Amino acid sequence: MLDTYRQVVTPEGVALHLRAAGAVPRALAWMIDLALRAVIYVALFRALVGLFGEAGNAILGLAVFVMTWFYQVLFEVLMQGRTPGKWALGLRVVAADGAPVGWMASFTRNLLRVVDALPVCYAVGLITSLIDPWGRRLGDMVAGTLVVHAARQTDIRAAAVSPPLAPSMVLLPHEQAAVVAFAERGPNLTAARQAELADLTEALTQARGETAVMRLYGIANWLLGRR
């Protein structure tokens, strides 16, 4: 039930610390999504039956099929790993190396919910998540994905303010890690504090103040492979 950390290293040698989500926040996120889908089903039922009568049931059946199999996939791929429920709980689905989840991986992990739900109440998924050190259910293991705690979308947008920028000098692994850590935590700091920290890297950014902050974000994006 406890959340744990997973460390992955990018091809550039940068260590990323991913806080894997435990079974409890994941279950709460799933219930929020389930409640939201129930509301949508009821609204669709009233609208379609009201407009088309008995024929509306056939359209509703198609809508239920699409929502059942593609609700999670569409949100996870198009919304940076977040369904509304995961967004509410501050969770995100990522690939095992910390990269954004892709279509095939998302479809695989959600398709295998059928197995994780066996024999009742997600028993298989719960058991595997308790055994796995990073709380992964069977679908995540097969798809190579991980559910982690992450800042909400507004925070991520605030961090992605600068295009990738190659560093002007060779950075040692711990220096790369420091730049990435700055980019991850910077949005939670005031502009003045960000500039104060960025000024310490003047030899790297060849700038001070806001310009140095922007260049550090760019270098972090470059180190993370966002080219």
The order of strands across the largest sheet is: 1-2-4-3
Q: What is the CA-atom radius of gyration, in angstroms?
A: 21 Å
- Which spans of ≥5 residues are poorly predicted at pLDDT below 50? 153-158
Say what oligomer this is.
single chain
Instruction: Give the termini distance in whole angstroms.
Output: 37 Å
Gross geometry: elongated
Number of continuous helical runs: 12
Task: Tell me roughly what share of residues is in helical segments.
Answer: 55-70%
Mean pLDDT: 84
Structure in a nutshell:
The protein is an alpha+beta fold.
Record keyword descriptors for this entry.
227 residues; alpha+beta; four-stranded antiparallel β-sheet; 12 helices; 60% helix
Description of the molecule:
- This protein has 227 residues and is an alpha+beta fold.
- It is 60% helix and 10% strand.
- The protein has a 4-stranded antiparallel beta sheet.
- A hairpin with a 5-residue loop joins β1 and β2.
